[in-house]
Amino acid sequence: MTHDVIVVGLGAMGSAALYHLARRNVRAIGLDRFEPGHERGSSHGRTRIIRHGYFEHPSYVPLVRRAATMWRELEAAAGHRLMTVTGIAEMGHPDSTLVKGTLSASREHRLPHEVLTAHELMRRYPAFRLPQDYVAVLQPDAGFVEAEAGIRAHLRLAGAAGAVVRTSERVTSIEQRGEHVRVRTERTSYDAGAVIVTAGPWTKSLLPDLALPLQVTRQVLLWVRPPQPELFRTGWFPVFMIESEHGIHYGFPLHDDGLLKIAKHHHDREVVDPEDYNRTVSQADESTVTGPLFRMLPAAAGPVVATKTCLYTMAPDEDFVIDRVPGQERIVVASPCSGHGFKFAPAIGHALADLALTGRTAMDLRRFRLARFGAMAS
Ligand SMILES: Cc1cc2nc3c(=O)[nH]c(=O)nc-3n(C[C@H](O)[C@H](O)[C@H](O)COP(=O)(O)OP(=O)(O)OC[C@H]3O[C@@H](n4cnc5c(N)ncnc54)[C@H](O)[C@@H]3O)c2cc1C
Question: What stretches of the chain show up as alpha helix (H) in DSSP?
Fold first, then answer.
């Protein structure tokens, strides 16, 4: 065998896993069907939100804390900034999933936070116009991570530590054969002691026997030029999420280019085939984001100057999938998406390296087990 571990897919998760393997002096190779920075998966674009008071479930909080520390360690190794702390404002009706969940996680884990009325929030951040019965949970330690730069840093440092990176090489099959795994690509085949499958939207099709209940949905991102840019300046304006009767909308402080990035979480839950879906953003797509959001954030209501599509790989319970494949334990599968995985990439990459090399990890990943789906390799 020429490799100890093969990583299939070098987006947020695979690039981090490859880095953590290479740091342990393991002979690791990473394969991706596209080039880094491509726009076909889930990890492109400049930024992703990192937040600690995890509304989805309090059990994510230790993992976010670990990831935040590891983003700082990666910054130090890479020699440039990868995480910017801006604080976050999470807003909605007191009974909304976002507000209730954020408060529950913050209280359980004693995270620093304050709760403001809509009026107080609008006094502090005049860009917002919220219904008067809304509240805002503010947390100081949230912000954003640099998405594509983070992936580039992981890959560059993995390469420097001895990992092999092969791009524009599509994997066609993955198979455990006794004490090793064989990964076939369009060009050749590789044997290794273990494989980590971090193929994002293509995970299900690469492991067909697992019958993973994952669905890929089309997402839309917009960049607008706000008429009042001074109300959104980085270093003062927080990242934000607002839950209304139209769902959860979110956005970032002003980029250096004077643009605001805004979107709707679960754009319209349209299930698509990652090989072939509509990557053109329509007027209707734009209105899904700007209609509700500009009413609550009128100072942002400027022209849309750029758009992109992106994919979420959704588990039915909106949690992650991270596990060894039952009966084929040399295959580790990770789909930490469901629309909220990026922030965890360094911590999950570390855990994936653990799982591939030793079969276990100190990180508590029980929530993400395959057994919850009754999934079995055939
Ligand atoms: C619009 C949008 C906004 C988001 N916002 C946030 C946020 O604010 N905060 C947050 O934490 N998370 C956020 N997320 C989620 C986060 O981006 C994802 O969880 C994360 O990017 C998933 O990374 P991944 O490595 O699993 O998948 P991907 O990035 O899709 O990587 C999979 C890789 O596998 C490769 N691949 C697939 N098939 C093959 C094959 N056969 N052979 C070789 N290579 C293959 C692909 O080319 C790809 O590079 C957002 C996602 C989207 C789409």
Answer: 12-23, 61-78, 97-108, 118-124, 147-160, 203-206, 283-296, 345-358
In the annotation, is 203 catalytic?
Answer: no
Which of 40, 93, 343, 350 is the catalytic position?
Answer: 343
Residue range 99-117, pLDDT digits in tens: 999 999 999 999 999 999 9
42: CA distance to ligand 1 center in Å?
A: 3
Q: Are residues 106 and 131 in the same domain?
A: yes
Query: Does residue 150 contact residue 12 with C-beta atoms inside 8 Å?
Result: yes
Which residue range(s) make up the domain with 184? 3-44+148-212+317-373
Q: Based on the fold, state whether residues 239 and 269 are members of the same structural domain.
A: yes
Query: Is 100 designated active site?
Result: no
Of the candidates 33, 40, 44, 93, the residue annotated as catalytic is 44
Q: What is the mean pLDDT of residues 286-314?
A: 98
Told to judge if 57 belongs to the known catalytic residues of this protein, a careful annotator would answer no
Which atom of ligand 1 is closest in space to residue 341's alpha carbon? 19
Q: Does residue 305 share a domain with residue 167?
A: no
Q: What is the pLDDT of residue 2?
A: 81
Q: What is the pTM of this model?
A: 0.97
